[in-house]
Structures are given as structure tokens and as C-alpha cells.
Amino acid sequence: MSRDAARQLNPLLPGYNFNLYLVAGLTPIEQDGPLDFHIDRPGGMKGCILNLTVAGSGRVHDGEHRFDCHEGDLLLFPAGVPHYYGRAPQAERWHHRWVYFRPRAFWASWLRWPTAPGGQVGRLPLTDPALREEMAQLFADIDATHRGGRRTSQELALNLVERLLIRCHEEQPGSDARPLDSRIQTACQLLTDQLARDLSLEQVAAEVCLSPSRLAHLFREQIGVNLLRWREDQRIILAKHMLQSTATPVSAIAARVGYDDALYFSRVFRKRVGVAPTEFRRSHAEAADPWIEVDGDAR
């Protein structure tokens, strides 16, 4: 195999292209080793990256600032934020676990991390050894699960990412641990139970005894996106599951998730997922190698 071909098959090296919503791994950088170079993505990535230092130190450039991350430091690079980082000059190594993922719509409030003034990279130091161990195990579980080879490996891994984000949110200074308003919970359940119906904002508001404007405000405040976007997200999640785990025709799946026009459903699916429903089903049926990307290497 040529050197260029090998680089394409290794997500720790530049030139590796993603094709999934989630990829995870461990990058063991040693001084003067083959991985001892800086990652430079001026445009960031379409998804987010969580990065946990497990040994040594790394140096991260965040806008006009730079900082070193040490064992137990957990970082969040939001979508579209420039990446420029590598081993800290004074360190002999930088070993870090990472997860690249496309966030679900309702994760928005969990992705607001403290940053340095003028910076965009979130940072959460884990000072408690037990908490470090818990987080490191979650990263390892996500990595193992997404490589599991099951038809639902990606969804199971995303569930673990959700758990990781919730734990991080709980540990953020001043985090708001209040549960969702019961009326928003009812609205979400109503939309989920009747996913195939195009319930209007007014209809949902009447069911939960709120005015449409108050429901719209409260929903966005607590969920992070508007009600219609959240419903579309749930439709796409269900459609992906059905495409992965059943032989149901695409037209029937479209109807099941609320689209009478299968062609329109395919356009929405392609816009949200990046491929057409038939291509998505085929790629999973062929048990494609999970080490694939969409926007560049995820080191």
C-alpha cells in the first residue's frame, strides 16, 4: 500500500475523510514520533470534537490566545471553530482521547461551555480523579461501541455521547440542572407520538395550555431549537433507524415519519444527513468500515 493510501485509511493522519456522524479514537503523540505535528483546520469541522488529555500536555491556539491542556483537561471544539493544536513544546508526549460527532438538535444547551475571553474553545478541567476515570471510560466506551459492527452501533455510540455531554453539563460551574418544564415534556411527547402528523404550533400550544408565542419561546429556551426543527430532527432520527434496521420501502418510511411526498423526504434527508436514503441504507447494509469521515482528519 502506498504512503498516500495509508494516510487515507488512518484517521490520525491528514487527508482522512469522514462519512459518519460519529468517529472516536485515541491519539498517542510522542515527541518526534509520526503523529508529532500540528492539526490546522482554519474552517473547523461540520461537527464538534470533544478532546480529553489522558497523558502529557497539548497546546491549543484559540483565537488570539493559546493555552496548554494537561491530564484531565476536557475540551470542546464547536462546529465551525478553527482548530490549531499539537503537543506542547515542553512536553514529551500528548495522549488524548477524542470524539467527533454531529450534535442532535436538542443538545444545544449542553454545548455551551465556558471559554477564555474572546475564545471559542470550551474547557472543563476535571480535578477529581474519580471523575477523570468516569469520563475516560465513557470515551473508551464510545470508541468501542461505534466500532462494534452492529447495524445500530452509531446510534448506541451517540447515546453514550449524550450521556457524556450531560455529565459535562452537570460539572460545569453554575450549570442549571433544572428539569425540563412539564409542558415542554408534554409537547415533545405529543410530537413524538404523532410524528406523521403536521401538528401546528397552535395545536400543540392548545394541548399544553400555553399561547403559541409562549410555547415557541419556552421550547427554544429549554430545547435549544424551535419546535418545528426539533420535530424534523426526530423524523430524521427515526428514518435513519428504519433504514438501518428494516427493509421497509423508502416511500413507506417517508409516510411513517410525516412526508407524503417521498421525493421531498429524500431531499430533506439528503440535506440533513448528507446522502440520499437509499445510499444511507446501502452503506450500512454493506457494513462499511466505521473509520470514515466527512470534513477532514479528526485527530
Descriptive overview:
Keywords: Activator, DNA-binding, Transcription, Transcription regulation. This is AraC family transcriptional regulator of arabinose operon. The protein is an alpha+beta fold. It has 2 domains: 3-171, Sandwich (Jelly Rolls), CATH 2.60.120; 190-199 and 222-285, Homeodomain-like (Arc Repressor Mutant, subunit A, Orthogonal Bundle), CATH 1.10.10.60. It is built from 10 helices and 8 strands. The chain has helices at residues 3-8, 129-146, 153-171, 182-193, 201-207, 212-223, 227-245, 250-256, 262-273, 277-285; strands spanning 22-30, 39-41, 48-62, 65-70, 73-77, 83-87, 93-101, 122-125. Strands 1, 2, 3, 4, 5, 6, 7 and 8 form an 8-stranded antiparallel sheet that branches. The longest helix has 19 residues, at 153-171. The two termini are 22 Å apart. Mean pLDDT is 85; it is low at 1-10, 15-19 and 287-297.
Low-confidence stretches: 1-10, 15-19, 287-297
For the record, the CATH architecture of the largest domain stands as Sandwich
Annotation, overall tally of beta strands: 8
Task: Let me know the CATH homologous superfamily of the largest domain.
Answer: Regulatory protein AraC
What does the secondary structure layout of this molecule look like, with pairings?
Elements: H1 3-8, E1 22-30, E2 39-41, E3 48-62, E4 65-70, E5 73-77, E6 83-87, E7 93-101, E8 122-125, H2 129-146, H3 153-171, H4 182-193, H5 201-207, H6 212-223, H7 227-245, H8 250-256, H9 262-273, H10 277-285
Antiparallel strand pairs: 1-7, 2-6, 3-4, 3-5, 3-6, 3-7, 5-8
Helix pairs in contact: 2-3, 5-6, 7-10, 8-9
